[in-house]
Amino acid sequence: MRVFDGEKVMSPTSVVVADGKIAAVASNVQIPPDAQVIDGTGDTLLPGLIDSHVHIWTRDVLASGLAFGVTTELDMFMRWREAKAWKQEEAKGANDIADFRTAGTCITSPGGHGTEEGGCWGVMEQKTHLGAQKDPSCISNCAYSPPQFRWPARPAAPWPP
Asked: Are 29 and 14 in contact (CB under 8 A)?
């Protein structure tokens, strides 16, 4: 099989995987006697893809991404409980979901992006941070809401709809 390492395509070669990691890439690699051999003739092995803008609402998003070769997903905002649970799964060796990083909880200004369909859980009620004092249209997106931001008293609309 050909191997693309992110910079160049290597001519037909063999790849040995041990304990879930690539152990060797060479044209004359020693194949362990108990190895499962997969004939990759005519195929090309690629590094895992990175999807740099996703919204991970369910665990299935991570599983589907992995099935399509996306090994890392960059989430724009998600519920912290799910993020914590899935990171714990990952730490215990779960290999059926893509790795992910998240921006955390969505915080926005009243009527700001994310509130159109009830998708944001935090609405900034007081404009006390430096940027907002100078520019009232300033929107803050952060992983955890500082004390000066208050969650809305009304329940958020269910998301996704």
From this structure: yes
pTM equals 0.61
Dist. CA 14–CA 82, nearest whole Å: 39
Cβ atoms 36, 58 nearer than 8 A: no
Here the contacts of 20-26 (C-beta below 8 Å, separation 24 or greater) are 20/95
> What residues have CB less than 8 Å from 152, skipping those under 6 apart?
122, 123, 125
Residue with tokens 């195929």: 43
* Beta-carbon-side half-sphere exposure of residue 4 (alpha carbons within 13 Å): 9
Q: Is the peptide bond before 161 cis (omega within 30 degrees of 0)?
A: no
- List Cβ neighbours of 50 (8 Å cut-off, separation of 6 or more): 70, 71, 72, 73, 74
Tell me the percentage of the chain whose pLDDT exceeds 90. Answer: 27
Strand partners, 21: 18
Q: Which amino acid is at 99?
A: D
pLDDT tens, position by position, 78-87: 888 888 899 9
| Domains within the chain, CATH numbers bracketed | 2-27+38-45 (no CATH), 49-102 (3.30.110.90), 105-156 (no CATH)
- On whether the CB atoms of residues 87 and 75 are closer than 8 A, the answer is no
